[in-house]
């Protein structure tokens, strides 16, 4: 898990630095770790506290990464194939190589078949799926873990660059989300393509937030914080599941999306407060 989070941080490293955003991403990384730990804990010993932790963490953590990434995007410019491939696809490849080395070592220590371990995990790495599914094009025994994010980010950024050059961009972004969401009910495509198709909506939200100075508006109208907090609480209380890795937005998909936006805004607000209280505010 920590190795996966390291890969995510490296994948986001190229973004401009705003200290409160860095704090927000740190909170989201902790939420990813806590959320997955709570899942494992709840499987062993079901407990209300673990269920609350799952609802809280999964309600915002991955959308926050995509929204903040979109905040720094310039989709009207040409897509930088070399840079994006190096920072996202190459990071994925290097991380999966480390995974393959690790499983080979573990197979050796446990006197198991190294060839079988390499074959199984090699197919998992090739498919690039964030979770196990029975809808894959060919049998995949394991999930590659959190680094599905790198593949999804690549596709989402590529798609947003394409849609931004079309008229009625918001329509194409919404259609892409719907197609990715519905198609994943019938087939799970490799390389986290469908996750990227849905993630493009969150990138676009981040881009619009920067374009229309949403954070500035919120500062001028502080009641928006209260509204966002209430929406987020409703989302957490009504949580019916959410996994961007599997395009699962639970029993209330609209509330899940809106709630993740509200949760992201609240986490950014908390991060700005922490920055002001302990680090003196400002950007780096």
Automatic annotation (TrEMBL):
UniProt keyword annotations, A-Z: Membrane, Transferase, Transmembrane, Transmembrane helix
Acyltransferase domain ranges (all copies): 19-269
Protein name (database record): Fucose 4-O-acetylase-like acetyltransferase
TM stretches of this protein: 21-39, 51-73, 89-109, 136-155, 162-183, 189-209, 221-242, 254-274
InterPro entries: Acyl_transf_3_dom (IPR002656), Nod_factor_acetyltransferase (IPR052734)
GO molecular function, one term: acyltransferase activity, transferring groups other than amino-acyl groups
One Pfam family here: Acyl_transf_3
Domain of life: Bacteria
Keyword Lipoprotein recorded: no
């Amino acid at each position: 898990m920590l190795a996966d989070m390291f890969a995510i941080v490296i994948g986001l490293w190229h973004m401009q630095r705003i200290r409160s955003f860095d704090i927000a991403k740190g909170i989201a990384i902790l939420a990813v770790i806590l959320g997955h730990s709570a899942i494992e804990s709840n499987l062993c010993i079901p407990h209300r506290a673990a269920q609350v932790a799952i609802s809280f963490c999964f309600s915002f953590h991955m959308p926050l990464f995509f929204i903040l990434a979109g905040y720094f995007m310039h989709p009207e410019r040409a897509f930088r194939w070399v840079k994006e491939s190096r920072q996202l696809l190459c990071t994925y490849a290097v991380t999966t190589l480390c995974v393959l080395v690790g499983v080979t070592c573990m197979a050796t220590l446990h006197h198991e078949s190294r060839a079988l371990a390499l074959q199984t995990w090699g197919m998992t790495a090739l498919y690039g799926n964030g979770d196990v599914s029975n809808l894959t094009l060919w049998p995949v025994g394991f999930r590659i873990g959190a680094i599905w994010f790198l593949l999804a980010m690549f596709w989402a950024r590529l798609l947003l660059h394409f849609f931004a050059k079309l008229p009625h961009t918001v329509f194409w972004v919404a259609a892409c989300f719907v197609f990715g969401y519905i198609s994943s009910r019938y087939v799970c495509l490799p390389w986290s393509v469908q996750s990227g198709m849905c993630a493009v909506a969150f990138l676009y939200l981040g881009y619009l937030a920067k374009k229309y100075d949403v954070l500035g508006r919120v500062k001028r109208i502080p009641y928006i914080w209260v509204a966002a907090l209430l929406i987020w609480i409703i989302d957490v209380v009504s949580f019916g599941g959410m996994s961007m890795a599997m395009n699962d937005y639970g029993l209330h998909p609209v509330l899940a999306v809106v709630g993740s936006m509200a949760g992201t805004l609240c986490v950014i607000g908390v991060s700005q407060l922490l920055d002001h209280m302990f680090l003196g505010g400002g950007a780096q």
